[in-house]
Write a structure and sequence with these properties.
Distance between the termini: 24 Å
Strand order of the largest sheet: 6-5-4-7-10
Number of strands: 15
Structural class: alpha/beta
Strand content: 15-25%
CATH superfamily of the largest domain: ATPase, nucleotide binding domain
CATH topology of the largest domain: Nucleotidyltransferase, domain 5
Radius of gyration: 23 Å
Number of helices: 12
CATH architecture of the largest domain: 2-Layer Sandwich
Number of domains: 3
Length: 388
């Protein structure tokens, strides 16, 4: 028998786990009393009281109004301190949005800029914007900066390593921002950030196996498996958008041909529409949705073709990952009635024997899922239990 001894968790780890459990319960069930925290968590009331006092002292939790009971002492309700704020950054190929949110995911302000072609110019502009927001946050506690990227971020090298639609070279975005602002910076792929937004801020039935599909200039996928965000080697897990549906298809920004996103992205729908006649100057995907709603049959056909390929690509996700739920994020959700039945039919027709078609859910969020994901990205280090 080996002489190695199994070590139990230290008392410090147990206290930290209990602290995060209580903090997370306040976040998800606020306003909540100490008594209800003890009942829901299973922790002793004395333990709850000690943890709550620590959270109040650390300015994480505030005491609110008192409740009413038939008899006995009136309970005091607890809530998160909304003076703790996060700066969220959503980088897209055409636009960068910087926003300020509180710990509850409520946004106080946001501003946008055109995405510069030169990553160094973009980085300098981003630092200036973050510094300006930081100066405006007098009296507030800034927890950090969360950044959503239209590509893959390698957490080991701190570099953006794959962003074909952004067309930036490999660059370390994180280190200069940390150095210039003095704030902690968390970065994640946009689709993975949307997974965090879905898990943290949506009030739907909890789900431990889901995939978020972001549909915009390209197609991104974020994967939650058994309650854990999947990253893979170099942060490259989940790049279904760059799996070829047709090796002889159109050239993709990644350098290959026939990738899923060249058939099912917003750009693909515009291409289908342009094939029906002269290309209108400056037509956007939002314009295409509007034209379809106003009776433009060519626009409707383009969106139908896009929906067909979206469903066809989702077959890969269903067969490979068997998720319980697929959440679709993007402008297309504004006209979901044009997409839902076609996508669902494609998925149902190709579910493997013994498998189950996942629930298909549109995220009606007006483009805020990525930004909410950046908030969760920063906060998760406070709310998730550390490894034992």
């Amino acid at each position: 028998m080996s002489g190695k001894r199994t070590r139990g968790a230290s008392s410090e780890v147990v206290r930290e786990i209990n602290r995060r459990i209580v903090l997370n319960l306040v976040r998800t069930r606020q306003p909540i009393s100490r008594a209800d925290l003890a009942r829901v968590s299973g922790l002793q009331r004395s333990t709850i009281s000690l943890i709550v006092e620590q959270l109040i002292k650390g300015s994480w939790v505030l005491e609110g109004p008192t409740g009413r009971l038939p008899r006995g002492r009136r309970p005091t309700f607890l809530r998160l301190n909304d003076e703790r704020v996060i700066i969220g950054v959503d980088i897209r190929p055409t636009q960068i949005t910087v926003a300020l949110a509180d710990a509850n995911g409520k946004f106080a302000s946001q501003e946008s800029m055109v995405t510069p072609a030169d990553p160094q110019v973009a980085l300098n502009a981003l630092i200036d914007t973050i510094q300006r927001i930081k100066r405006s946050c007098r009296g507030k506690m800034i927890e950090g900066v969360g950044i959503s990227l239209p590509g893959r971020f390698d957490h080991r090298s701190d570099r953006l390593v794959f962003a074909p639609n952004l067309k930036w070279r490999e660059i370390d975005l994180r280190t200069p921002i940390v150095k210039e602002t003095g704030l902690e910076v968390e970065m994640e792929n946009a689709a993975a950030a949307c997974v965090l937004a879905e898990v943290w801020f949506e009030r739907a039935e909890p789900c431990r196996d889901l995939v978020v599909v972001t549909v915009s200039e390209g197609i991104g996928t974020g994967v939650l498996t058994n309650g854990q965000l999947m990253r893979g080697t170099n942060g490259m897990a989940g790049e279904f958008g760059h799996v070829a549906l047709d090796p002889d298809g159109p050239l993709c920004g990644c350098g290959n041909r026939g990738c899923w996103e060249v058939f099912a992205s917003n750009r693909a729908a515009l291409r289908y529409y342009f094939e029906s006649g002269p290309e209108p100057d400056g037509l956007t995907f939002a314009d295409l949705l509007s034209r379809a709603e106003h009776g433009d049959t060519n626009a409707a056909k383009a969106l139908e073709k896009m929906a067909h390929y979206l469903g066809r690509g989702m077959r890969m996700i269903v067969a490979g990952l068997a998720p319980e739920r697929i959440v679709v994020v993007g402008d297309l959700t504004r006209s979901w009635h044009r997409f839902a039945s076609t996508i669902e039919a494609q998925i149902r027709e190709h579910v493997l024997p013994g498998g189950t078609a996942p629930q298909l859910v549109p995220a009606y969020e007006d483009g805020m899922a990525r930004l909410r994901g950046t908030v969760a990205l920063v906060l998760q280090k406070h709310f998730h239990s550390p490894a034992m």
